[in-house]
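Q: Predict the bound structure with pyridoxal-5'-phosphate.
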Amino acid sequence: MNNPKIWLSSPHMGGNEQKYVQEAFDTNWVAPLGPNVNGFESDLEIFLGDNVYVAALSSGTAALHLALILLDVKQGDEVICQSMTFSASANPIVYVGATPVFVDSEPETWNICTLALEEAILDRIAKGKKPKAIIAVHLYGMPYKHHEIKSISEKYNIPIIEDSAEALGSSYKGQKCGTLGDISILSFNGNKIITTSGGGALVTKDKSVKEKAVFLSTQARDNAPHYQHSYIGYNYRMSNICAGIGRGQMEVLEDHVNLRREMHRFYMGFFESIEGVKVLNEPSQDCFSNHWLSAIILDSYETREALRLAFEKENIETRPLWKPMHLQPVFENCPYYGGSIAQKLFNKGLCLPSGSNLETEEKNRIQQVLERFFK
Ligand SMILES: *Cc1c(COP(=O)(O)O)cnc(C)c1O
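A: Predicted complex:
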């Protein structure tokens, strides 16, 4: 029982992070601006392609908050949000005084269901309020069905905020996640595919939107010699120290995606011969997932709990899927559209250790627990 802890997903440094951080100290750029911030933004712009502009921010949550502000979402508005997600997808809707309208998942990617989405839009319009935006999430790195969601967004002229916090390195029909929304966001929190210790980014194809995001994230100072303000500002810019970590991480992003995909292949191989367990997997060649987290659906809540506890006993971290937002006490009064797909996934689903830094010995310990459990 004195086995060292195996984490679900832990930071994995490439090696050059400290070099960039040291440079920041050597040149005294210890501030929320500097060469690493510009360099990290440029690294991300090159990686994502498609002529995007990236604004590096203090978190993915901050990026979502600014995305809503930039889309002019205000007090009393409504915003559609995938129910099955981390709470940070939905909280910023409340920050701006708007109401989240939650939508169920579809069973293939576990992401926002096209049919329930359209039903929600039509019903909200019938009730007198057209939603101002759609927040769609690539859960665990699995791309949502972009072309279907996009066509609904265009049909009703409602912009998409693409929550790509978990999906840097994933793509849909060859187009990188993080470039699919009207505005997109990324996260570099400690357990994401790459980390800056804490950080995020807003991605846009419109240079003026990036400029506004940077303006708002640095306290919205007007162009004047004194401090003058015509807008409410925020302190959301990324620090040059964090951006230095990000530059080092960008050098190993593709390697880390390959290693996560290898962990996923390991689980696919193991569960191939096990009845009643389904691994979240790319439904077609359209979807390329970074497999940030490998997740499985068991035959019941009881089996899920038993397996979680079997891992816990061996000091191995696993985690139930995100509890859908429409089932959260804090959102209990928000409208919800769809059936019980997200709820069923939550009841029976488990995320397994998926880090790009898992050693052979750790993989063996994981395999032993699985073999004993499913024997
Ligand atoms: C991590 C995460 C966020 C928030 O990002 P932070 O950088 O932690 O603020 C938002 N949405 C999803 C789906 C996430 O997983």
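A: The longest helix spans residues 253-271.
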